[in-house]
Amino acid sequence: MKAFLSTDTEGITGVCAEDQTDQGHSGCGRAAGLMRGDLDAALAGCEDAGATETTTCSGRMRNESAENRVMQENKLKEAS
User: Fold this and answer.
1) Residue closest to 11 by CA, chosen among 21, 1, 2, 19
2) Measured between alpha carbons, how far is 37 from 20 in angstroms, rounded to an integer?
3) The pTM is what?
4) Other C-beta atoms within 10 Å of 69: how many?
5) What does the DSSP 8-state code read for residue 1?
6) Chain-centre distance of CA 34, in angstroms?
7) For the segment 8-66, what is each residue's pLDDT rounded down to a tens digit?
8) How is the chain split into domains, by residue range?
9) Are 1 and 48 in contact (CB under 8 A)?
10) Residues 21-30: contacts with CB under 8 Å, at least 24 apart
11) Alpha-carbon distance 55 to 50, whole Å?
12) How many other C-beta atoms can be found within 10 angstroms of the C-beta atom of residue 6?
């Protein structure tokens, strides 16, 4: 089974103010960490459900095609 996950900071656990969603504001770094936690939990759930391949897409990368977003996200995963 393949899974595709799309993320964005709006709607992430613990994100409730605009300064958490706009890059350059004081709460953005913390929100990114919270988003990573939610993504890790979703990926673990996919694995537990039998997913053999997962692809993630970050909604934070605006003005880019979905294909480019996925490529960027995969590069980020490979670098970490």
Assistant:
1) 21
2) 15
3) 0.67
4) 18
5) -
6) 10
7) 888 888 888 888 888 778 888 888 888 888 989 999 999 999 988 888 887 765 545 55
8) 2-79
9) no
10) 23/60
11) 14
12) 13
